[in-house]
Amino acid sequence: MANQWKKLKQPSSLSLSPSCLFLSLLSFASLFLFFSIFNTSHQANSAKNKALYSKSCNFTDGQWIYDPSINSPRYDNSCKEIYKGWSCIGSKKSNALDIVKWRWKPYQCDLPQFDPLSFLHRFRDTNIGFVGDSLNRNMFVSLFCTLKRAPGDVKKWRPAGADRGFTFLKYNLTISYHRTNLLARYGRWSANANGGVLESLGYKEGYRVDVDVPEGTWAEAPSFHDILIFNTGHWWWAPSKFDPVKSPMLFFEKGDPVVPPLSPERGLDMVLKHMISYVDKRMRPGTTVFMRTQSPRHFEGGDWDQGGSCQRSQPLSPQEVEELFSLKNNGTNVEVRLVNQHLYRAFEGTKFHILDISHMSEFRADAHPSTAGGKKHDDCMHWCLPGLTDIWNDLFVAYLSNVEDRT
């Protein structure tokens, strides 16, 4: 019996020695400490990033400062989503690497570069939609290429109507782009042989624009996305698309032509009014909606089809900005401020937040693809990637941080 008791008291092969037990406890303690520090650090960084954005600061009032310490862009031309005509590094535009060395400095505060990993953590389980013309695609691609630098798998996936979209699987964050030129549905119109109101006024052909019907590409977007960024404008002042004589815009409401026919700018006002109502009725509870202001063009010496070009290698001075964009000068690029007048008037007092990128962008005549865009004419409308639209996204994140938390 005594021998059996001694056997029971002997440690089995599965028992831990005091030294092994100590090491095990130390390992668990280390792991616990690591994850605690990581979590605390992430929370601290999130709080710190949020604190960087002053609610009292006007982020759009500032100046561009050349910063040679910026050694590399936040992504490069290996990001496959970049449209070839916007890849100024790939096209070897002479100032492509200099474009990103200009930093926007608001007079009253700083606009920090947003951190992609913090963004992915903060907007986990969120759907973000860009709705608009190719300039909103410019901004969408910039955001995608920046976020893609963070670790994690990305899957191509498009919600209903979207032109393109991606899901960052680890965070269940989806971003997508819904292409629309006018926001409203439109298509070719030809006179009816049996006559009608427009026919009686002498119209033979043009484009029918239904001011109260959203284009199908984004009709479902308000009920899917948690954050929406809209834009429109360039196509409204595009006589090459809607010639006022040969192919005018003809506006319809509730299926009937609006008589007397409206000018494009009055048609824009009607579309914006109906679009605001449509989004307000269909958006999900707690959705944050932005209207991005007009992106400026920088054609000098004529418009795009009149030999206009943009050969600048540095941002414009304040005086040069006024010469190009002042309404009293009625210059080639005056559309930016004309469109913005309509946008500010339409969205005042609504649930939409204005994302004002216009003033900071007016200086950046150096940041377009120009001859590197691969077109028969200088591309002085879209922006090089990486480039200015990266700063738009910094501003977008700053605005988001100053919007009340979504419920």
TrEMBL record:
<dbReference type="InterPro" id="IPR029962">
    <property type="entry name" value="TBL"/>
</dbReference>
<feature type="domain" description="Trichome birefringence-like N-terminal">
    <location>
        <begin position="55"/>
        <end position="110"/>
    </location>
</feature>
<keyword id="KW-0812">Transmembrane</keyword>
<keyword id="KW-0472">Membrane</keyword>
<keyword id="KW-0735">Signal-anchor</keyword>
<dbReference type="InterPro" id="IPR026057">
    <property type="entry name" value="TBL_C"/>
</dbReference>
<dbReference type="Pfam" id="PF14416">
    <property type="entry name" value="PMR5N"/>
</dbReference>
<dbReference type="InterPro" id="IPR025846">
    <property type="entry name" value="TBL_N"/>
</dbReference>
<comment type="similarity">
    <text>Belongs to the PC-esterase family. TBL subfamily.</text>
</comment>
<dbReference type="GO" id="GO:0005794">
    <property type="term" value="C:Golgi apparatus"/>
</dbReference>
<protein>
    <recommendedName>
        <fullName>Trichome birefringence-like N-terminal domain-containing protein</fullName>
    </recommendedName>
</protein>
<feature type="domain" description="Trichome birefringence-like C-terminal">
    <location>
        <begin position="111"/>
        <end position="398"/>
    </location>
</feature>
<dbReference type="Pfam" id="PF13839">
    <property type="entry name" value="PC-Esterase"/>
</dbReference>
<dbReference type="GO" id="GO:0016020">
    <property type="term" value="C:membrane"/>
</dbReference>
<dbReference type="GO" id="GO:0016413">
    <property type="term" value="F:O-acetyltransferase activity"/>
</dbReference>
<keyword id="KW-1133">Transmembrane helix</keyword>
